Amino acid sequence: MTGTKRDHVTIFTDGGCQPNPGPGGWAALLRFGDSERELSGARPIPPTTRWS
Questions:
Q1: Residue 38 and residue 30: Cα distance in Å, rounded?
Q2: On the CB side of 22, how many CA atoms lie within 13 Å of its CA?
Q3: Measured between alpha carbons, how far is 37 from 28 in angstroms, rounded to an integer?
Q4: What is the mean pLDDT of residues 29-47?
Q5: Could you give the 3-state DSSP secondary structure of residue 9?
Q6: Measured between alpha carbons, how far is 18 from 34 in angstroms, rounded to an integer?
Q7: How far is CA 14 from the centre of its chain?
Q8: Residue 51 counted as domain residue
Q9: Distances from the Cα of 18 to the Cαs of 12, 21, 24, 29, 43, in angstroms?
């Protein structure tokens, strides 16, 4: 199936926290042809945006 859209996975991602830094969450949508998969998660204990 070379050259068709089924040759790759498209991934959409997003995340955030409130307040910043603070508890955070994330989500992703993966698309492969006609199939989709949603993934998500959270970390209720801050910090989620601090660089180590």
A1: 6
A2: 5
A3: 8
A4: 91
A5: coil
A6: 34
A7: 5
A8: no
A9: 21, 7, 7, 22, 11
**What's the CA gap between 19 and 33, in Å, rounded?**
37
- Mean pLDDT confidence for 3-18: 83
Domain that holds residue 29: 5-37
Q: Does residue 49 sit within a domain?
A: no
Under 8 Å between Cβ of 42 and 26: yes
- Kindly state the percentage of the chain with pLDDT values over 70: 81
Domain count, the chain: 1
Asked if the structure places residue 50 within a domain, the reply is no
